[in-house]
Fold these 3 entries.
Entry 1:
Amino acid sequence: MSNRTLAILKPDCVQKNLIGEVITKITGAGFKIISMKMVHLNEKSAGGFYEVHKERPFFNDLIKYMTSGPCVPIALEKENAVEDFRKLIGATDPAKAEEGTIRKLYADSIEANIVHGSDSDENAKMEILHFFSRKELLENHG
Ligand code: GDP
Ligand code: MG
């Protein structure tokens, strides 16, 4: 799945009514949508997704934010998907993100930063399977 990555339009993106605008940026950059849904995460699901950050000081705030409203996970496909998507969204802290990136354009803070993007092929595979069944991915592919 090295040509795939997981995006999540985070609760602030949905709250600010930016779903359409952000998806336009994503597809405009050449990503194909494989599967997509709207879900309101509970603490268990958000905690599982961000398991790697559980010792970080911001973990509790992160879970509160990610469970504050619905979000939109999207399985994406493109050559070099992981790296190209990280470039498209910009640095975690929007103040440090490059001009024209999604986080620079729309994000308010290092926490409420609009969008998630997987950071490796291995994590992309796990993260996609956190939200989508193999059956869903097969049915929607092609
Ligand atoms: P990402 O891969 O760029 O999303 O960044 P990380 O994997 O390091 O962090 C995951 C998410 O936790 C980020 O996207 C932010 O929503 C949040 N986050 C990261 N760093 C901080 C921080 O220093 N403070 C707070 N409050 N949230 C953070
Ligand atoms: Mg990360």
Note: The pocket of magnesium ion (ligand 2) is lined by residues 119 (CB under 6 Å).
Entry 2:
Amino acid sequence: MNSNQNKQRTDVNSLGEFGLIDHLTRNFALNNVSSIKGVGDDAAVLKVGEEVILISTDMLVEGIHFDMAYTPLKHLGYKSIVVNVSDIYAMNGVPTQVTVSIAISNRYSVEALDEFYAGILLACEKYNVDLIGGDTTSSPKGMSISVTAIGRAKPNQVVYRTGAKVGDIICVSGYLGAAYLGLQILEREKQIYLENPEIQPDLDNASYLIESILKPEAAKDSIEYFHKHNLVPTSMIDVSDGLASELFHIAKQSRVGLYIEETKLPIHQETQLKAISFNIDPLTCALHGGEDYELLFTVDPKDLEKVKYMPDVYIIGDIVEENEGLKIHTSGGNIKDLVAQGWQHFKKD
Ligand code: ADP
Ligand code: MG
């Protein structure tokens, strides 16, 4: 007989993704002096000698994070490294190694996996990380990928989600919303293809948007700029779930409020145009789209000059007192509460 039979059954959806992580990890304390930061940021932080080691893991699951109908395996390999390297950058660290673990069904041939690894190799070269191990196992269905990225930083260089202070300036390292629209284009083409395989894909000049979802880049240049100019943001996170969701993480963990200006949000012209043609508000793409892999960071106002000269940087708002909450000044002159998806429901990421 099942001993769990009379126990309460709580649906994972009821806690939300972040609530579920909090729930599962609530009994774990850090007992080793080398464990500086555990659960709760973009990467864990371990003290080793004069430096700290950063470790971050992300999983990609077929049917949830990628669809084989429109995902070239080489791009998938590349992206699986990029999303992990991005978490090391989000701590202001330098990525140095990765491990790659895969579970694959026999639908995948050696040639297909060679393609996947060609993408991994390309990303390892671009981001200067070494592939140092992993695990390979079979799966009854589809493909799952788990990548762990390891990086290093000087202890006083590490940037957490907890350090934003009232008066700090909120910045992002590049355009938002493009990956979300790229995904909408691919989904639409897939539906058209399924209904009528004779029709060829209509990817009319959408290469920027499609590349944003299939082959994103991590904000390497921003981190190099920070290090070169001795600029240490007060807090930082990478934009994986969507700007609004990441702003909630910063606000909650730094115990501050914030406001952002709609007119300052960096939205590429192609994103604007395609959003309008899809009848989606470009603002929704920028706030909730996700998978941008840009850095969202705050800086002390004394560093404003250094920030201004960053090649790609957009100043989007300010940190205020916690009791002011999270607000957006709309282009129409209104002030609205920010809402974030992913905080109420268990999302597919
Ligand atoms: P990110 O979007 O930056 O990859 P996540 O939202 O996935 O971060 O995770 C937030 C934090 O929770 C991280 O510190 C991560 O290591 C931790 N975490 C996520 N899932 C689990 C889990 N199942 N067990 C322990 N820690 C987890
Ligand atoms: Mg992250």
Note: The pocket of magnesium ion (ligand 2) is lined by residues 42, 87, 90, 237-238, 240 (CB under 6 Å).
Entry 3:
Amino acid sequence: MRIDVLTLFPEFIDQCAAFGVVGRARERGLLDLRGWNPRDFAEGGYRKIDDRPFGGGPGMVMMVEPLRRCIRAAKQDAAAAVPVIYLSPQGRPLQQARVRELAALPRVILLCGRYEGVDERLLAAEVDEEISIGDYVLSGGELAAAVLVDAMARLQEGTLNDAESAVQDSFEDGLLDCPHYTHPVNHELGTVPEVLRSGNHAAIARWRRQQSLGRTWLRRPELLTELELSRTDRALLDEFRRWQEHPAGPDTD
Ligand code: ADE
């Protein structure tokens, strides 16, 4: 997959993408990440990319032309249409299902705004989708772009070492992830649940599913209303809830 990021700070994206899973995806040739600076497409000695907002008010607005030229340049060698995504708090909240769809595309262009925003005419003409990473305001789109790059990179086939792990993640089936434990078994902070040490794979799978259901019910109950739970799942969740009410039962958090 190729991702072009348009930002006044291309080095920032480069840094974020140098480590961990994203770094590995790049090393393995699974992710081609390219930074573009709209300032390189601005005119005049000052390479001006922003100006004061019409109607007054604080801050500066990014101008149409440098961004438009930058987008055109990033698209130049594209064989097919490349969606342009603008990261902004006004966008649709990002969810794993959308990450999965985007990660399956051969190319996307991410546009990062700074200052008070981007001239609306550029957004209307050139941007296909606006995405927010949450209901809070960042000082620019770079961190949001880095979040999206990371989420897409780890889904590129061949990136994760354990092919299973992306499927087992939180949200892949609409539920939160179950708890995880490692050595030592006994610690002053607690003991690893017995079932996980039993070697009984069916019992372990059942426990994990129940914990996922229970955690989702406790922490993000609104997610459950969007799911059609099977009979088995409903029975597991009922049991979990009973244990919550009478906490002598198995480990919960
Ligand atoms: N830019 C500034 N805030 C943002 C947010 N919450 N999500 C995406 N892009 C942003």
Note: Residues 178 and 211 are 5 Å apart (CA to CA).
